[in-house]
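Practice problem: 40-residue YVTN family beta-propeller repeat-containing protein
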Amino acid sequence: MLPRSVACRCAVAGLAIALLTATSIACGQARPPLPLATVADVPLTGHTTRWDYASLDPVRHRLFLAHLGDGVITVFDTRRQRVIADIPGVSSVHGVLAVPELDRVYASATGTDQVVAIDASKMEILARMPTGDYPDGMAYAPGAHKLYVSNEHGGSDTVIDVRRNRRVGTIALGGEVGNTQYDPVSGHIFANVQTRGVLAEIDPATDKVVARIALPGARGNHGLHIDAPARLAFIACEDNATLLVLDLRSRRVTASFEVGEGPDVLAFDPMPGWLYVASESGVVAVFEVQGRRLRALGRGMLGPNAHVVVVDPATHRAYFPLKAWKGKPMLRITAPLVPRT
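Answer key — structure tokens:
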């Protein structure tokens, strides 16, 4: 249940729909409005500098936000809706990944070409490990006890043994690397090779590339999310504002959709099957996954530079860190407008 009154929520929702509909008409595009209502704008700490990836620890109800411009990880309590800590010393932090089973958080310090291991309970840095050039996204393969770090400019993935906090390998991928994700069904790692229009598949047992999947229509395939039960991969292409749907069984692209300019981070709410695509332009697109097909639910402006999104599957709330809102860094929290079945 949302904390605001029903009357207040309806008023906000109605205003949002009216504004987004007017924008769509003015642009000459008839599209459904964004099916989200803002339920809170919570001030964040630090300066009005760039934010990057975020990761939710559902066990502790903590959201870890990479404040790239400030070089800190901001920790937000999703129950109390307030910042509880800032973890400094992570230079130009891009990626952040909470791994509750290890009681740990990992962050990619792009300013020093390192991945940083953090104690999730004490919120203190445990170790620093070298990566390649410009580490960005990360994925954890639990069966292999390995962390995979995308080296965007280095054209590789760094492999970290999380039991020893040591780098154990580097996997050359042949081009700039976008986001990296783990597929629990195959047990493999998938990485976007964004300058090649290819999705690379890595076997953690050998740390070898076992397949390179061509992505027709991809230009700058950066963002990535894997819907393991449906055997689908969703790929955000930042250079042509396109979302691709890849069938992991046939290894073919089955659909493409227009999204906001500069799509970046994707998030998925599994129970309703909602896929969020956040973009550098601030436009967010929402889709519904119906079996193995997608249906566009709406698209519209969420906030300036709203290129990062995390969804809490327990509450269905989505979190968007904004660089500046009314002159201050802000965390915009939204909830779906439509009733769930």
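Discussion: Residues 1-29 have pLDDT under 50 and may be disordered. Students who identified this feature from the tokens alone can consider the problem solved.
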